[in-house]
Amino acid sequence: MKIKIKQKDLLNSISISQKAVSSKTNIEIHELIYFEAKDDKLTLYSTDGQISIVTSCICSVLEEGFMALNANIISNIIRKFPNDEINIKTENNQVEIVCQKSRFNLVAYSYYEKEKLPELKGEHINIENFNLKQAVTQTEFATSIDETRLALTGILMECKDNNINFVAVDGFRVAKKKIKSLYPKNFEDMKAVIPKRCLLEVSRIIEDSSICEIYKFNNDIVFKSESTIIYCRLIDKKYIEYSNLMEDNSKLSVICNRSNLANSIERASLLADNTKANLIKLEIKDGQISIKSNSELGDVFEEVEAKKSGHDLKIAFNARYLLDGVKAINTKYIKLNFQSSYTPCLMYSFNEETKKESDEYIYLALPVRLANE
User: Fold this and answer.
1) Is residue 101 predicted with pLDDT exceeding 90?
2) Disulfide-capable partner of 228 in 32, 55, 299, 331 (CB 3.0 to 4.6 Å)?
3) What is the rounded distance in angstroms from the CA atom of residue 188 to the CA atom of residue 51?
4) SS (H, E, C) the chain
């Protein structure tokens, strides 16, 4: 193998590949990146057993070949090089890397048994990268960390009624992002529980301005965007039937400035007692939301102007669970629907011009039932 390649191109490809390299493993293959030079292209492959990444970049191939190198070592070397041309050649299980007056000689792993990955063919979903990244951002924080409920540690992706839904549930809240999209007929009612880490890595790799192709093969899901393909092993567990939880039987609606509400909750949480579920109390009446919290250090009182439709209400929440949902909504105004002090709150983005809420993103937060109720 003998190639010439630009430093920034190689560094970018290595940085992408490293997202599928395990930092805590005794399995050598999971610490390596496999390089193959062919047809004026350098292809990099890496895997940690759960995620596999194949990415490529343009280079000048003087002699075709392949090698495998320790990911951290090659990354640190290329990162320290100046932004100039790099010459790489392999010979007798050795690799020579030269950039300007710097020269490194490394041990190359010539034998590298790659995992056989499915060929990308057949029907697939096309989704704009911006929408996919937004779906991940608005749901990933609501996944569970309880490994005994493995399905809930991932994000559900489902195709239904010409929508692609991304859903996260942790037992205390539900976050659902709906993307209107056409997809092949055989994807209707498709459900896939994708590990949270996989979708986070996908969202970090893909560029906003491009399109992502999504394929599903048995227990694998594949994301392809530009010159990078990400293979992910699905969580083979049945996901909770969440739709009944999202039914809106509200008797009280409140509309307010989202930023003002978020800031007030955040300030109130500063004195929320961590030993009491990080509790804050809301009282809704007379065109405002009053927010209170207290601990042995003191207490705080906040007021947020709001438009109310329905009865007065007192209700309590874990501050973080409530704040996460308010922050995830990205419109100026937010609508909160309530039924009673012991049933969930449903949050929607609200358009002040049309006077309507949107169901493209819905967040549900369970209240905390107070001891004296």
Assistant:
1) yes
2) 55
3) 25
4) CEEEEEHHHHHHHHHHHHHHCCCCCCCHHHHEEEEEEECCEEEEEEECCCEEEEEEEECEEEECEEEEEEHHHHHHHHHHCCCCEEEEEEECCEEEEEECCEEEEEECCCCCCCCCCCCCCCCCEEEEHHHHHHHHHCCHHHCCCCHHHHHHHEEEEEEECCEEEEEEECCCEEEEEEEECCCCHHHCCCEEEEEHHHHHHHHHHCCCCCEEEEEEECCEEEEEECCEEEEEECCCCCCCCCHHHHCCCCCEEEEEEHHHHHHHHHHHHCCCCHHHCCEEEEEEECCEEEEEEEECCEEEEEEEEEEEEECCEEEEEEHHHHHHHHHHCCCCEEEEEECCCCCCEEEEEEECCCCEEEEEEEEEECCCCCCCC
* 345, 317 contact by CB (below 8 A): yes
Q: Residue 78: which residues within 8 A CB-CB, separation 6 or more?
A: 7, 10, 11, 14, 86, 97
Whether the model clears a pTM of 0.85, i.e. scores above it, the answer is yes
Cα separation, 134 vs 173, in Å, equals 18
Sign of the alpha-carbon dihedral angle for 271, 275, 280, 281: negative
Question: Mean pLDDT across the stretch 85-102?
Answer: 95
CB atoms inside a 10 Å sphere around CB 270: 12
pLDDT category of residue 75 using cuts at 50, 70 and 90: very high
At 267, give phi and psi (nearest 5°). Answer: -65, -40
The pLDDT score that the predictor gives to residue 218 is: 87
Model pLDDT for residues 152-200, shown as the tens digit of each residue: 999 999 999 999 999 999 999 999 999 998 899 999 999 999 999 999 9
pLDDT band at 213 (very low <50, low <70, confident <90, very high): very high
Range from 242-251, 270-279, 331-340 that averages highest in pLDDT? 331-340
